[in-house]
Write a structure and sequence with these properties.
256 residues, two-stranded antiparallel ribbon, single chain, mainly alpha, globular
Length: 256
């Protein structure tokens, strides 16, 4: 059975998918690709603009193909999405359009079509709650951090280009070549350095917290209180942005 036939054979059969997935998928490479898509907002790279590869003829995984739609952009131009985004994020103001390709909704907002492979992976607790966090931490330890990513974008790429040349290129591509048509004007976004820093910082913080990895582990608050046995005490913490929080007692994780 080839890979495509196997995926189709598991459609809407979560138990079969989970029982057989390790025979057909490199679950760790799939997790790495999934992490990249979510952290960078690669909205055009999950359903399409990706390559399916295998190095042993049996275990398949995704690899990047075209990653130019990222960091809040939508695939038909312009900045549309605030961080974080995931497969449930919709285009602001739209009932039917999801941010990440591979999913659509009907006029009532209910899912009409969806990528079964990633539906099944996300629904699999072992993959979502064990493998993905493990890979996220491994990538962090290998250097996938906010500081390294920003340094790469700012110094290894943006700083290598003359700003006059960059702006002239954008003028030609998005204004002059349109002969007065403003269709592509929303793509003329300048360097986006400040926006990129803000977008990446929030996205990285959110997914570090969700997967209990990376810099999230170095940010904590100790609370010590004397409470009479049998009494009740409540501590309310309100975060200033969308995030996850973990609670430990006597250094033992209680809830996330």
């Amino acid at each position: 059975m080839d890979f495509h036939e196997w995926v189709v054979s598991t459609y809407q059969n979560q138990a079969k998918f989970e029982a057989e997935a390790s025979q057909h998928l490199d679950l760790y490479k799939m997790a790495a690709y999934y992490i990249f898509v979510l952290r960078f907002g690669l909205v055009d790279s999950l359903e399409r603009n990706a390559q399916l590869k295998t190095y042993d003829g049996q275990h398949w995984h995704y690899e990047p193909w075209d990653m130019d739609i990222a960091l809040g952009n939508k695939n038909d131009g312009g900045i549309a999405y605030d961080p974080p985004i995931d497969r449930n994020t919709k285009l602001p103001g739209s009932v039917t359009t999801y941010a990440i390709s591979g999913r659509s909704a009907d006029n009532n907002g209910n899912i009409a079509t969806s990528n079964w492979l990633f539906d099944a992976l996300e629904a699999w607790g072992y993959w979502s709650n064990t493998i993905v966090p493990e890979v996220a931490q491994a990538l962090y330890e290998a250097g996938l951090t906010y500081n390294n990513i920003s340094r790469m974008f700012d110094e290894d790429y943006a700083a290598k280009w003359c700003e006059l040349m960059y702006n002239e290129s954008g003028f030609f591509k998005y204004i002059q070549s349109g002969n007065g048509d403003s269709t592509w004007l929303s793509w003329l976004q300048g360097s986006r350095m400040t926006h990129r820093h803000w977008w990446l910082s929030n996205s990285m913080d959110y997914y570090d917290a969700k997967w209990f990895c990376g810099d999230y582990k170095s940010h904590f608050l100790y609370i010590r209180a004397n409470v009479t046995e049998g009494s009740q005490a409540a501590i309310r913490i309100t975060p200033n942005k969308q995030t996850y929080m973990s609670v430990t007692k006597d250094d033992v994780l209680q809830i996330t």
